[in-house]
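Appendix B, record 7
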Amino acid sequence: MYCLPQATTDLYNNCTTTHSGTSAAAPEAAGVFALALEANRNLTWRDIQHLTVLTSKRNRLFDPYLKHFWQYNGAGLEFNHLFGFGVLDAGAMVDQANKWKPLPERFHCTAGTVSTPGAFSTGETIRMTIETDACKGTDAEINYLEHVQAFITVKSTYRGNIVMHLISPMNTTSMILSQRPNDDDHKNGFTRWPFMTTHNWCENPRGTWTLEVTSIPGKNNDVDTGKFSEWTLVLHGTRDPPYVHQDDDDDNSSKLYKIKRVHEKAMAK
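Structure tokens (predicted):
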């Protein structure tokens, strides 16, 4: 079946029939979230994020360049660097919103800082690690992750060729900075820049976190040099399991059911 392209407004008093990207995704997401809030007016911004993670679907999304594949994090949630946790499912989100119960309190834990300078050049990778107990035994103790931030200071003769990955104690690798060919900065670099990932959602944060900083060859194959100065790891999440009181309808195909079982097994140890 042939569908006519959708015409809409564009920049500079023009019209377009190629409406796409975040310009299309953001209002679609806003509409889905509005439906969830209509079903349950007590939802907070955190509730919406949890519902997004739990009800999104992979469908047939894939990277045609075969660079970014779907993978599972340490809690069993499937994610992709390009597509996050998948396509929003409005029906599933509204259904879950109708029976959603309040989440446990969210805490913030500064897990550690590495301030040992390191130099690197094109093709080289430097690795720094932080060992953390995720503030265990304190008022900020975290056992179940939501957001992870890395505040990083690094400079390079061509900033756009810097690529960074963050690896969790449960061996989940998140690309927190990709190559950017048009980012030609060579003076400012990044100064305590807050990079963030949600790919560790529901993981246990205790153990060794690894930051990898790599200088990728650029379009001109010039040799770049860089200097890493410091990074601080900040964890955001809950002390208590987030879904223990949520109703999963015993649907063993749902993400909620699977994550609840993972957390129940961890609590039983």
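Remarks on this record: The first helix runs from residue 22 to 39. The first strand starts at residue 8 and ends at 9.
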